[in-house]
């Protein structure tokens, strides 16, 4: 379908791995533990980034191929990570503006933030704002 692997990672794979976290957050939020739900949603993503990326890269560069470098196929990673950090900041500020209460309007707003994040990241990876991602290999 000629979809870049970075788009697959940002959207489909991320959604698939986040469903269990979302269900856990939903369960604890319904039990009245909204702070635990928010902590889970933010903490799991921070854990995924800091350990999910760092551990394989560390093992590759220090254990299996000492002194090697990990090659990343996207020059748009800097933009995506910056946008992701901005989204986390906006999420925390939004929750603060809603007086630390999880409401339906806040939920809709956060869903809109995710759609904006996904759209901008996809546009970056599809080279809309400039050349950051090499063309997809034919095979």
Automatic annotation (TrEMBL):
<keyword id="KW-0106">Calcium</keyword>
<dbReference type="GO" id="GO:0008273">
    <property type="term" value="F:calcium, potassium:sodium antiporter activity"/>
</dbReference>
<dbReference type="Pfam" id="PF01699">
    <property type="entry name" value="Na_Ca_ex"/>
</dbReference>
<keyword id="KW-0769">Symport</keyword>
<keyword id="KW-0633">Potassium transport</keyword>
<keyword id="KW-0472">Membrane</keyword>
<feature type="transmembrane region" description="Helical">
    <location>
        <begin position="110"/>
        <end position="132"/>
    </location>
</feature>
<keyword id="KW-0630">Potassium</keyword>
<dbReference type="InterPro" id="IPR004481">
    <property type="entry name" value="K/Na/Ca-exchanger"/>
</dbReference>
<keyword id="KW-0915">Sodium</keyword>
<keyword id="KW-0739">Sodium transport</keyword>
<comment type="similarity">
    <text>Belongs to the Ca(2+):cation antiporter (CaCA) (TC 2.A.19) family. SLC24A subfamily.</text>
</comment>
<keyword id="KW-0406">Ion transport</keyword>
<keyword id="KW-0813">Transport</keyword>
<dbReference type="InterPro" id="IPR044880">
    <property type="entry name" value="NCX_ion-bd_dom_sf"/>
</dbReference>
<keyword id="KW-0812">Transmembrane</keyword>
<dbReference type="GO" id="GO:0006874">
    <property type="term" value="P:intracellular calcium ion homeostasis"/>
</dbReference>
<keyword id="KW-1133">Transmembrane helix</keyword>
<keyword id="KW-0050">Antiport</keyword>
<dbReference type="GO" id="GO:0015293">
    <property type="term" value="F:symporter activity"/>
</dbReference>
<keyword id="KW-0732">Signal</keyword>
<dbReference type="GO" id="GO:0005262">
    <property type="term" value="F:calcium channel activity"/>
</dbReference>
<feature type="transmembrane region" description="Helical">
    <location>
        <begin position="6"/>
        <end position="29"/>
    </location>
</feature>
<dbReference type="GO" id="GO:0005886">
    <property type="term" value="C:plasma membrane"/>
</dbReference>
<feature type="domain" description="Sodium/calcium exchanger membrane region">
    <location>
        <begin position="3"/>
        <end position="121"/>
    </location>
</feature>
<protein>
    <submittedName>
        <fullName>Putative sodium/potassium/calcium exchanger 3</fullName>
    </submittedName>
</protein>
<dbReference type="InterPro" id="IPR004837">
    <property type="entry name" value="NaCa_Exmemb"/>
</dbReference>
<feature type="transmembrane region" description="Helical">
    <location>
        <begin position="79"/>
        <end position="98"/>
    </location>
</feature>
<keyword id="KW-0109">Calcium transport</keyword>
């Amino acid at each position: 379908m000629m979809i870049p692997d970075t788009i697959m990672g940002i959207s489909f794979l991320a959604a698939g791995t986040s469903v269990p976290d979302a269900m856990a957050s939903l369960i604890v939020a319904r039990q009245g533990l909204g702070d635990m739900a928010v902590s889970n949603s933010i903490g799991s993503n921070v854990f995924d980034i800091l350990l999910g990326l760092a551990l394989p890269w560390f093992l590759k560069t220090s254990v299996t191929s000492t002194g090697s470098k990990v090659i990343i196929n996207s020059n748009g990673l800097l933009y995506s990570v910056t946008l992701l950090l901005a989204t986390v900041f906006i999420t925390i500020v939004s929750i603060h503006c809603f007086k630390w209460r999880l409401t339906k309007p806040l939920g809709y707003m956060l869903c809109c933030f995710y759609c904006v994040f996904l759209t901008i990241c996809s546009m970056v990876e599809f080279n809309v704002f400039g050349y950051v991602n090499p063309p997809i290999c034919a095979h």
